[in-house]
Structure formats: structure tokens, C-alpha cells
Write a structure and sequence with these properties.
With about 270 residues, this protein is α+β, with helices and mostly antiparallel strands. Helix content is about 30%, strand content about 30%. The chain has one domain: Thiol Ester Dehydrase, Chain A (Roll). It has 7 helices and 11 strands. α1 runs antiparallel to α4. The model has no long low-confidence stretch (mean pLDDT about 85).
Amino acid sequence: MLLTFSQEDALKWAAFSGDHNPIHFDVERAKALGMDSMTVHGMRAMHDMKNHLHNMLSSSVSTGEHYRFCVRLRQSVKYHVPHKILASCNTNNGNVSGQLINPLTDEPCFSATLSSVSARPSSKMALMQCISGQEYRALYQQFSSGLNEQNCQWVFEDALLFRCLMQSTDVLSTLADVLPEMKAMTLHEMFEQLPVVQTHHEVHFSDALRHFLAPPAGYSQAFRYDFQPPLVLGDRENGFIIRLGCQGGGDPENLLTTSITLKTWPVVPSTIFE
């Protein structure tokens, strides 16, 4: 299976997610980070792998009650290059795995695994944030039209929670303590000021979220969500590792938990924010 990403893919993903990181749109910013070209959003490139492994799991492996999708991003995905998806299924362990391969180097851009697990992570989050049923339906339509395909519920709700993380004014509170000169209220604003790349992504969800989603015109179920306390490691000289998490769902018994890990470049000199 070959995948080729264009600038139009980036624009559609940015319109849905709010991720306008300049390294995906500004060639000069990409080169300033040592890249030879702009790169594809990691979350956008992962989307096709999610659906591919989901279909393999559904057709080849006995189902379970809970699932875990995990990705490690190794190198950037380039525009206009026909990347290959190589995937395999292990029926003994109940998982499927895949890699997105850059044919120019024959090296993986990222590695992913989708597997059944015994239970979802425990959480005591109150889920105080809310998306109305009408807005949920509209966002699903925007998401699906931007990707030109039908999507299963866990894939959409994972993207939806990423969108919530991008827009939240709460998730950067910990980073503000160590970088007070960074005048950013949201991840989108942080991306405008500080070179950032994604390194890992992890999703936990129940079997009930594996079906294909098509909210009817009168869909009214609210989607409730909230954020986990952010974790920030590192220092200015070596860069920071930022782990962000979010949990949500329309059914309290079938919640989805997603987390992303971001890496910043060293913040030297501090005039990077000026």
C-alpha cells in the first residue's frame, strides 16, 4: 500500500485540528530546524495507518474488550513521496503492527501497533468540558470530508481530542513555569514560537468504539472530555519533552484516552521568542 501526501492534505488537517505548526507550511522554518523540506503532520500521516491496522485487526484477530494503539515517530514524513505501509498480524499475541517506510531511504518514518489489552487505563477525571451533539456531528462531517472516507469511531474521537488539546488554554500551564518568556496560551501559539516535533502517540479505547461512525442528522449526545495534568521534562539547554493527555466520550463506560509526546529544540538563546 502506497501513501502520498500533498499540501492540500496538510491544509485540510490543519483546518480540522488547528495544528498550523510552521514546519508543515513554511519551508524556511523547516530548513532552520535542519530539515531539507517541509514535513507532513504526524497525526495526519498516522490516520491512514490507524485505519489500515484497524481493518487488519477486524478481519484477522479475535476481538477483545479494550485496545491500545501506539506509535513511535522516527523521522519526518515528506510531501509528494510515495511512502509504503508494511504491516503484519500476530494472531498469537492478538495484535497487528505496521511501519510507514520512506522508499528513498528504505527506513521507517514511524512504527505502530494496534493490540487488544486486558483493561483500559484507570482514571478519575471529571470530564468537565463538553461538545454538543450538534457540534460533534458537524466536526465529524468536516473530518470525514477532509479525508474523503468513512471513519471508525475511535479514529475520529482520537482526532477530536487532539483538536481539543490544540485549542485548550490549560495544557501549557506547566510549561509556562519553566519558560515564562513564551507568550503562548495554546499549543497552536506555542508552535508559532518554539520548534516542536511529535515523537510518540498512544490511544486506549473500548471495543464499542471500533464500529464505523455516521452520526444522524438529529444526533444529540454530548461528548464530554477533560485533560490530564501535563508532564514536562528536560531543560532549556537540551530541550523539553512534553507529554499531554486527554480523555473523553459520549458514554461514560466507553471512554477514549489519548496522549501525545512532543519534543522541543534547545531554547538557546532566549531571544527565540522575540
